[in-house]
Amino acid sequence: MLKKLILSLALFASVQISADETNDAFIDSIFKTGTLPQGLEWKNLEKPFSPGPSISDRNAWDNFPDKEWKAKILSRADEYLKQPVPPFNDELYMEFYSNGNRRNWERSESARVTALSCLFLAECFKADGTKIAKIEEYIKSICEEKSWLAPAHDSNAATYKGKSIDIDLSSATKAYSFAVIYNVLGDKLSSETRALMSRNVRTRVLDPYLEALSGKHKKWWWMQCTNNWNAVCHAGVLGSALVFGKDKEEKLIFIASAIANMKYYLSGFSPDGYCSEGVGYWNYGFEHFLAISESVRVSSGDVINLMRYSKAVKPSEFGFTIKLTDKLSPAFADCGLTAMPDRRLCGYITAISGVKSIDFRSIAGGDLIKLYMSALYAYPFVTMPSEQSELRLPARTYFQDAGILICRSSELKDLGAAFKGGNNAEHHNHNDIGSFVIAAGEGLPFAADPGSEVYTKRTFSKDRYDSKLLSSYGHSVPVVAGKLQKTGAEAAAKVLKADFNAQLDVFMIDIKSAYDVPALEKLSRTFIFERESPAVYITDEVVFTEESSFEEAVITFFEPEILENKEGILLSNGSGKKIRMKIDAGGLTYTIKTERIEEDISYKSKPYRIAIKVDGPYKKYRVSLRFLEYK
C-alpha cells in the first residue's frame, strides 16, 4: 500500500503548474504600479475578441465536441421558439425588499438568460437563421430591464429606480454573455440589435467602471476584495470590454485594471492554496480568474499568463487537493453538500500543466448563464497535450496555513476524513472550528458538514448566525457550558500537533478561543485517521475552573440508529454503507438526543443533529468518538 501512496503522490506532483520568473516579474510590476509593461505587442485588440469561433466557422461548430449536449441544446431551443419571451418581473424583483426572498427572482431571471444562451448555441449549431428573431427578442427584453443587478445586490433598489448605476455579479455576467453573442453571431444580428447591445453594455457596465477608475464614481468594494466577486466581476468587465471597447487604448486600460486587481483576489487564498469560501465558490471564482488569465495571455501574445504566476499555482491546485473521496469534497463554508471541483475547470488546469486527466472539451455543457465559460471550455485557447497521464490523489493534503487536513485511504472509494481548524472570520464563514467530515463510497458523508442554507436577506446580514446551519449548532463541534462558538478572527484554532505517516495521521488543535466561556481553561480536539484498517478517532479534552456542562454533536443526513447496550450509533451514507460511532465518555454517563435541523437548506433534505450530552456538570471531561466501518 505504501508503494501505491508514493506513486499517487508522484503522479499528483506532475499536475503542478510551473511558474516563470519573467512572467512573475511582469505581473509583480503590474500589481505594484497598476500599469502595463512597455514594449509588449498586444494582439487581438483591434477587433472584437471573445471565446468561441465565429458562426461562419462551420468546421468548428459542425464538429462541436459534445454531441449529446448539442442534441439537448437543439431540443430545448425548439421549445423556446414556441414560447413567448417572459417579461422582466418587477414583483419578483421587489419581493426581496419586502420579505428577503431572493430565490424566486433568481430562478425567473436565470430562465430568461438560459433561454437566450440556448437559442444562441442552437443557431450556431444549425446556422439556418431560424433562431435569430427570437434571440433578438430576448436581447431586447433584457435591455429593457430596469436593472441588471440582482435585487440582493441593489441597495435600496437604487439602480432599479434609476438613482445610480452599479455593477455586480449579475450585470457583469450579462455583459460578458452579450459580448460572446455579439462577437460570434456578428452581422447575423441586425444593426439595430448590435447597437442596442453595445449601448447597454457601455451604459450599464463599461462606462461606470471607467468612471470608477477615474474617480468620477466611487470604486465598488468588489474591485479590491479578496473573494470570488473580484474575479467574477472583473472577468465580466474585461470580457465585455474586449468586444465593446472603443479602441485598443481603452481595452488596455481594462486589461491593466483587471490584472492589477487580481492581486487582491489571490490574497484571499492562504499561502498553501486553501479557499475558505469552499469548493463551490472556488469553482465560481477561479474559473473566472482562468477566463481573465486566458484573455490576457492571448491578448499579450502569450507573454503574460496569470495562471503561471507563482502565487496562483497553489490556488489552481485546490480543486484537486480538496477532494475527500472520488465522489465527495467537504462542504465547508457556503457550499452545496455534494459540490465537487468542476471537471471542466480542472481539465483546463491540467491542460495548462501538460497533464491530460480530463478532456474538458467532451463535457462542454454546464451553466448556460455563464455562456462565455461554455464557449471557452468547448473551444479552449490552450492545446490539449497528446500524452495522457493518470491523475491520483496523495494519502493526505495538509493545508498548514489554513489548518485543514484531508485524509484519504489507499483507494478513494474507502474511508476518507476532513478535519477543520481555521477561524470564524473566513470567507462565507460558518462558526465551525473543529468540525469534521467522514465519508466513503457513493453516498453522502456519514458525518457531514451541512453546507449552505438557501440564501435570503438574513444570510448576509447581522443575523447570519441565527441560522442553525451557519452557527456551530449545525456542525459537529461541542456546545460548551451551554454556549455555541463565537464569530470573529480571534476565534481561531491553534495547531498543537500534526504528525503524519503512511499508516496514521494525528492532528491536534486547541479550540478554546472559539468559546466565550470564562471558566473554560482547556479545550483540545485530537483527530486520528487510521489508514491500514480505516478508522477515525476524535477525542476532546476539556478543563473548567468551575463545574460546567459539555455536549458533543455529530451532523448526519440519514436518521441514525442507536444500538442497545451502549454499542454505539449507526450512521448511513444513503447508498448501503454504514459506519458505527462508539462513544467513550471516560466512565461518565451521557444522554443522546437526535433532532432534525429545521432550516431552509440548499440540499433536498434536512440534516440530523445527534447531541451527546454528558451528565454533569463537572470540571473535567474526556470524550472520544470512534468511527469504524460497519459490516
What does this structure look like?
- The two termini are 22 Å apart.
- It is built from 15 helices and 16 strands.
- With 631 residues, the protein is of the alpha+beta class.
- It has helices at 2-13, 21-33, 58-62, 67-82, 90-99, 103-126, 132-143, 169-185, 191-214, 228-244, 248-267, 279-299, 310-321, 343-353, 371-378, and strands at 396-399, 404-408, 416-420, 423-424, 436-439, 479-480, 488-492, 494-500, 504-510, 520-530, 535-556, 561-562, 569-572, 578-584, 590-596, 608-630.
- The longest helix is centred in the first third of the chain and has 24 residues, at 103-126.
- Helix content is 35%, strand content 19%.
Layout of helices and strands:
Elements: H1 2-13, H2 21-33, H3 58-62, H4 67-82, H5 90-99, H6 103-126, H7 132-143, H8 169-185, H9 191-214, H10 228-244, H11 248-267, H12 279-299, H13 310-321, H14 343-353, H15 371-378, E1 396-399, E2 404-408, E3 416-420, E4 423-424, E5 436-439, E6 479-480, E7 488-492, E8 494-500, E9 504-510, E10 520-530, E11 535-556, E12 561-562, E13 569-572, E14 578-584, E15 590-596, E16 608-630
Antiparallel strand pairs: 1-2, 2-3, 3-5, 4-7, 6-11, 8-9, 9-10, 10-11, 11-16, 12-13, 13-14, 14-16, 15-16
Helix pairs in contact: 2-11, 4-6, 6-7, 6-8, 7-9, 8-9, 8-10, 9-10, 10-11, 10-12, 11-12, 12-13
